[in-house]
Amino acid sequence: MTFQFSAARNAEKAEEVAFDVEDLFFSRTDGRGVIAAGNEVFQRISGYSWEELVGAPHKIIRHSDMPKGVFYILWERLKKGLSTGAYVKNRARDGRYYWVYAVVSPIEGGYVSVRMKPGSSVFKEVKAAYGDFLKLEREKGLGPEESANVIRMRLKELGFPSYAAFSSYAIAQEMSARDAALFRMEDSRLRSLKDALPTLVELHKEQQALFAAFEKIRGIPANMRIVASRLEPAGGPISAISQNYRLMSDEVTNHLGGFRVDNGNKNLSETVIPRIYLGLFMMAACRLQREVKEVSMAALGKHMERDGFQTEVDVLSTMLDDYTIRTGSVLVSVFNDVSVLARSAKDLRQLVTGLDSIRVLCRVEAGRLGTQSASLMPVIGQLDAFHVEIDATLERIMSLTDRVKGLVEAAMPRSFNGSLRYHPPAGGVSR
């Protein structure tokens, strides 16, 4: 049987194919998207016989209500070797529909799509959004790529920096909803990673505040020299203080490099946030992979699957191992980079303490000058405000980095916990 049969399919219906939250199913295709195998649940819910499914393109179950842009994003990522999650409305053989959350993963020679029944609040919002995207495609004649751009723009408006970030958030929400539907405790490791995201966003804001504060003091040493030229002969105490302050502030400013990567173009926390999203996706997908593997092994043991199904179980086992390793590797890299941040903040605080001692000397000298120091007081006021601000910002940064490290450690797959030690990067912090 080949896809030619699909021309005779029944018209699409407004009736949904019922299946339970316990039902997990998957299908495997070759590199062109032609169905090679799957489990009994997939065959049952789709309504096709195996003779009709095997050898047919996967789009045999595509529903016309799906926006083209979703599939464009999906295939764009898959062709780059990136596992991707998506909400998909499928079409059964008899024309009825069924919704799934699908995690599609590249494997050697093709792809595997694992599906579960969606039930989170995100799913309700996505269904409405898909209707909007579909309407735009039809009314404005948008092609797949144009539709994909509209989808990405909508996601950015909602606060997601990329489709990858959204799919990470979505699968985590779906796994939590699945746990609730099955009366299970929420996965504490997923919860830890979800909690790490807003903490990292706050950390990013504090880093920006740190850079802005140092930008504001650039002119202070010059102002001190100008004031000194009015109050004392060249080389006097205030001139010496301004020179020392300039030298030490330059050293402190240079140390800010420990908070930057990509040749200074990005804050370190900016590069960590996408990896937390990736780790969240990998961990949730890993859980889903483990469950579908267990379901498949049980079905195999009960002789509920077709001959040769052991091959599919082996594929699922390999995928699970891969997801586990990648999850651990991503989180270890996050832990090490956040450790870099923590150490940089601690070192910077020590340098600022030295800088603060020069500020105190400036205040002492102002006291010695008495009423003549009136022109120096605005500069001292700037220094006072700067040091209070910097000290508070660094305190918050150190607290936030400690929290992120704790959350990442709590989320780490057990087999990787021993890897959670700070490893200084070769050649400095830039990568």
Automatic annotation (TrEMBL):
Pfam families: PAS_3. The keyword Transferase does not apply. InterPro entries: PAS, PAS-like_dom_sf, PAS_fold_3. It comes from the Bacteria. Residues 39-107 form the PAS fold-3 domain. CDD domains: PAS. Keywords: Receptor. The keyword Oxidoreductase does not apply. NCBIfam families: sensory_box. This is Aerotaxis receptor.
